[in-house]
Amino acid sequence: MFIYDFSELTSKIHAGIAGSFGEGLLTTTIEMTIVGIVFITFFAVLGLFLVYMERKVCAFFQCRLGPNRVGPWGLLQTIADFIKLLMKELITIKSADQFLFNVAPFIVIIATMLAMGAIPFAKGLHALDFDIGILYVMATSSLGVLGILLAGWSSNNKYSLIGAMRSGAQIVSYELSVGLSLMTIVVLAGTMQFSQIIAGQETAWFIFRGHIPAFIAFCIFMVASTAETNRGPFDLAEAESELTAGFHTEYSGIKFALFFLSEFMNMFVVASIASTVFFGGWMPLHIPGLGGFNHVMDFFPPIVWFFGKTFTIIFLMMWFKWTFPRLRIDQLLTLEWKFLLPINLVNILIMALCVLNHWYF
Amino acid sequence: MNAIAEYFSDLFGGIKTLLTGMKVTGKYFIRSPKEIVTQQYPDNRDTLVMFDRFKGEVIMPHNDKNEHRCTGCGICEMNCPNGSIEIISKFEIVDEKKKKAIDKHIYHLGMCTFCGLCVKTCPSKALAFGQNFEHASTDRNSFNKILNKPGSVLTKDVKE
Amino acid sequence: MTNEALKDFIVTCAPGATFTESKQMVVAIIPQNDFFTLVKKLKESATTAFDFLVSLTGVDFNPSLGVVYHLESSELKHIVCLKTSTDDRINPILDSITSLYPAAELQEREVFDLFGVRFNNHPDMRRLFLDDEWVGYPLRKDYVDTVNIIDLIK
Amino acid sequence: MVDADITEKKDTVEEYLINMGPQHPSTHGVLRLVVNLRGEIVKDLKPHCGYIHRGIEKMAERNTYTQIIHLTDRLDYLSAHMNNEAVCLLVEGALEVEVPERAKYIRTIISELSRLASHQLWWCVMGMDLGALTTFFYGLRDREHILDIFEENCGGRLIQSYNCPGGVMYDIKPTFQQKVKECLAYFKTKLPEYEDLLSGNVIFQQRTKNTGLITKEEAIAYGMTGPSGRGSGFSCDVRKKNPYSAYDKVTFNEILRTEGDSLARYKVRMDEMRESMSIIEQLIDNIPEGDFAAKMKPIIKLPVGEYYQRVEACRGEFGVYVESRGEKNPYRIKFRSPNFANLSALDYMSRGEKIADLVAIMSSLDLVIPDIDR
Questions:
Q1: Is residue D209 less than 8 Å (CB to CB) from chain A?
Q2: Hey, what CATH class is D56-373 in?
């Protein structure tokens, strides 16, 4: 296996900076700043691309063309929209809680960015590699609900409040399923560290190694994570036909754009976790016993594998959104507590049995 | 036991209906270039042909000798439910006889509801519907149109 | 039920009822005081069973103000038209039939809005279409359209 | 007189008011509902109408009978043709004019095409209200084929003004039959997709089943007609009850369901689309030759008296009541609009339901606001 390890590059950069500034606080600060700038740039570019992708994908589902006027195939449409949102007036609500109202979108976006830090894009290409990586991602990604609750509460709008309360109930419930379905794989992998999880999938991806329980876990993860990102059919917090725009009814301009962006970035985070945990992340498709095939697969760079898998899963989530009607709040909770959670618990037990008896590949 | 069977039949039945729905949208996604029905409106202006009965606006057809068929009888004005037609007539001296003719046939497009009564009731078939539908304008005076062209006269073959 | 039997039924319930000629249905003019009891009987009696309020129309008969009711029976499929009116143009009051037909609630509000006829025992007698500050009742014949909204043509 | 206006209530910890509308995505126009909520549960609601009140009845009093027709287009714009037909039938009935058979056939076919187009629009909007946006585009796409037929033959896509007393304005085009058949053949391949995408979907079923319940007796008392009434088992189809135009020459079923919930109303409409297609198929090849309109006097004066004419519009019974004093204008004209009666039942139906169900119920009633406000 000759996959390029990005840690070589990063250690070279580190050596270069350390050579000039010496090991210490200054170097760390400079490195962190560089990482931060890289992430914010990546964040913005990816967000714009995802919005474009959503528009095109949903257009094709709906027998439409999608954006096609600004730039070739409408590629610059999202950039134009972004500029428009930047220039729009920021409406301040007279009776809103100003501080919370302004801080809410940033909480949402920061939570998403924190979660992004732990995602391994290629071998050695990640900002953080905790040994409790999965736990960290779950913890940070669920922080976003705080922002949504605050946004709904501080807007002083009843629609917003209903949306925020729905979102709270929804995320608190579905966090369980997301966690448990990831735990199923953790049982199989024996580690919570993302780099270790990917290394464990060198022979074959976990969804194949863990066969039935892993597949069930994947299905549950897909459902639960779609719910956690507040995307249709679980977009009750927005529910534009009931609550006009839910928790962000009163937001405009760039603050609205932050909410908008965070929805898409959450989707990316969730999809990349799914691809990392179930489909080996940047690990190429390996089938045990077929050395030649595996060799050919290795020629594709890992970053292509990672984004290929992630965008496939994002496409799947878009497919859900543009096909299904929205659930009602009681049905949403019924789905979680009556179906997903019991199945998940049984599933994790089955996985434990499989691991104990070596019933996996 | 029955309850458990019901639980699983609910679950799998539900998943099956969801997959059927996804099959429909997925089919359209895969066949998307063929299935797209969007009309590229301003681009397809050259090929866009409206049906001949399409009620775009009321027009008064003139022949190549700049003659129209309106005698100025006022039936269209009377029949119009919302007063969008105004006829200003004048008296001409033709063959030493005083004769009524139209001076201006004013049509207020902004008030028209396209009911078609003027066209239908016109005894000399002087009015017709035009197919132009791009009426948008920033000047409201542009909606007050004079249908008879300047200098036009009544054709000879219209009986009084 | 034949039209003749229906006429007899109406006359027995409301002795003051008179009938006008119509090819389509029985049209009965009922005195204001007998009206509610008549409708109640028409609805509850098994032979008539008028349970469906088709339409409720306010009419300015000039000088009297009235309401025209079209009732139909969903089972027996016969239809009747009832008219009642009041001569008081300043403070016209009729009986509400909302307690018999919930469908009448909004329609009576509409009549109040456009003709100014108040209905006794109506749960929520407010204007429906026009704002509360509107002066006059537009569908009355003596209504003067000061802002010239409706009278567009001459 | 007690003013029971719930807008005067104050918000408390338990109960609060929200204004749905006049600008709200799911009220489909400018209807305003003041909803009293307890958490997500609807306690009661009050409709506030009049945001699009144009005084059509007052305007009609100043117009002649031919001029009124184009005003009725603007009531329930999705069943514009049926509304026109109601006025025309009333005038023809009062003057005892015999309408040519050809006109009757054309009217019936266009009516059923309107019903089909209206139900397609309703279907896509119902999906959209429940959050499945894709249905909206599929419904509109299929509706376009019918609107093209309208445009070619009547000149208008939505509001055709195709009827006139005595018949129809112009004769149909020679391609009419061919185009209608093609359109039906096309739609028959698409209707199963509607069922796959929405009707069968488990989320949709759960959302609509047992919500907005109304019994047959209540539906009659509230005057609910059309598919909404038939979803509760109220046999109210005017086409069956008092056949007009060419409805006595075709065989079709009146779709009745007894459940009385949103799903029943949905299914009634879905089945009505099939019935409409069957009616058109029975008529399309048998359009008799002859005049497309009877000769009418240029100035129509109705004899003194009162007239009531009912037709089955897309949303229920549309009625026209005319009080004539023998002049060329009606003394009083009233349009009995089906949506107005259906709206009055909304409060009853949505009590105790969730706010998300309220949206589904409104969708299943298929309210068209200009018809309510008139």
A1: no
A2: mainly alpha
